[in-house]
Amino acid sequence: MPTLNPLRSSRLVFTGLISACLALSCGSDAGSEVNGGNGSGNGNGTGANGPAGGLDVDGATDANGNGIDDTTEITRDAACGIGTTGADAIPAVVELVVDTSGSMNWEPGRDRDPPRGQPSKWDITSEALVAAVAQLPASVALGLSFYPNTSEDNPCFEEEQALAIAPLGDANSMQRAAFNRAVQRKNCQGSTPTHAAFLFGSDQVAQSTIEGRKFVLLITDGVPTRALDCSGDGQSAVDSDPLIMAAGTAFDTGISTFVIGSPGSEDARNDLSRIATAGGTATAGCSDDGPTYCHLDMTTATDFGAALAEGLAAVAGRIAGCEYAVPAAPDGKTLNKDAVNVIYTKGDGTEETLLHDDSGSCSSGWVYDDTQTKILLCGSACEAVKADPGAKIELLLGCDMQAGPVPK
What pLDDT, on the 0 to 100 scale, is given for residue 4? Predict the structure, then answer.
């Protein structure tokens, strides 16, 4: 990276505050009971070099082509004349599409009601959903759809959200309270019109005017038993190919689809994996034919509750990802994107400078996205920030003066 010329440059500091989202990594650990969730971090912590405020200009040379020290001390006060401004994490817009068919009343792994005093699949799922959403940051916009959402006399899906998409807000917000009520009051009954429910959920995300990355999270315990036109007997599987194509179409328009397969979805694992693959969330090394499927497969988990909590945390970690928008320069100045510091202030007040990851693997530190409009925290750096309550990220960018008359 070229060095920042102090005679023709000023410094610009952008500050953003994020709440730590999760105490888990973006992916599952090697010993996980959730199939298909390998994380990108190496667990070695964030890289640090020099004091906060050091300007990272890796590869810089002087006028004679000689290598120079790649760290230049700068301060937050020298800020292009505008002080500090926000560099917030990129928000997310999410629709949860949740199977509440009659089989969710059964015992995990059994086609029967649970023994007295034991939880059903829905008891476990509803508790895990409430806990997972409680950990999502305020910037995430969330909506919720159940399927089926009609009576036994009308088994088809009605295009109606249980909760319209809106930012979650703080811990006591109306949106969070409404989500908890909707989940806790839901009763499970009926068949499985998955295709209609998915199309409705993806349409809600597509139509949302809230800025952010767009996701659908589909949770199901079995195969679809109703086609899009509601054909089918409600008991036997219908063709999943149209649903898989719909996930691919949604991905082509910028909507990624995560899939969680609960116990009972053993016969649907291939199709659920294909939905995740088409939806752009397949993990490295997975196969739609197994044994490591591309969706979050919980059919072999010995503890469904723990596996579901882990799987939801993994999804939440990817939804509430470590991405920060690169803001525009003030009038009369141009950002020098080769001269940037990313400062991580921990919850205990200590600071680390995260270095640019030149390895190509994005295992620690940070990188730009392909458009250089976002800064992405990598691997262990992302994990550390999300596991750290009170963590703060600051972007310190050099700012070149635009050409103009020489001041007298």
Answer: 36
